[in-house]
Amino acid sequence: VILFFGLASCQESLEERCQREVKEHTKKNCPAQVDKNTLQDSVCYEPATRTIHYYYTISGNVDNMRNLGKARQILIEQLRNATAMKAYKEDGFNFAYTYRSKSTGKILIEERLSEEDYK
For 30, which DSSP code? Predict the structure, then answer.
């Protein structure tokens, strides 16, 4: 019994795992070119709101307000289909996305998605 509790106490919580994984991802992979117009700058975990927050810079022909009208729906669909996020979605984490213009530096998209959005 003591061995079981000793091993159980060494395991990290999902929140701790998330914080570790996003920090490692950012350190190892960012900035990362997602496609020809999108650069992933970083990912962070906001423990107070249980939010995984992605930061991007966009350029080229998507770097204007006219092409961004369906961004929220696209983000929701991508999140619904993201199998790598399954454990976080099942536990009701929130997800945030910030897209900044490379040409102006202004935030073009800022979306927060909750469990109600992606279920």
Answer: -
- Please name which of 116, 67, 65, 69 lies closest in space to residue 95, comparing C-alpha atoms: 116
The per-residue pLDDT for 10 is 59
Q: Are 93 and 113 in contact (CB under 8 A)?
A: no
Q: What is the pLDDT of residue 5?
A: 44
**3 burial via Cβ count (<10 Å: 0-12, 13-18, 19+):** exposed
Amino acid at 14: L
Whether omega before 47 lies within 30 degrees of 0, making that bond cis, reads no
DSSP 15: H
Q: Hunting for tokens 């897209």 — which residue is that?
A: 99
> Model's pTM, two decimal places?
0.86
Residue entry with tokens 């091993």:
7
CA distance 21 to 43: 10
Query: Which region holds residue 70: left if phi is over 0, alpha if psi is between -120 and 50, else beta?
Result: alpha
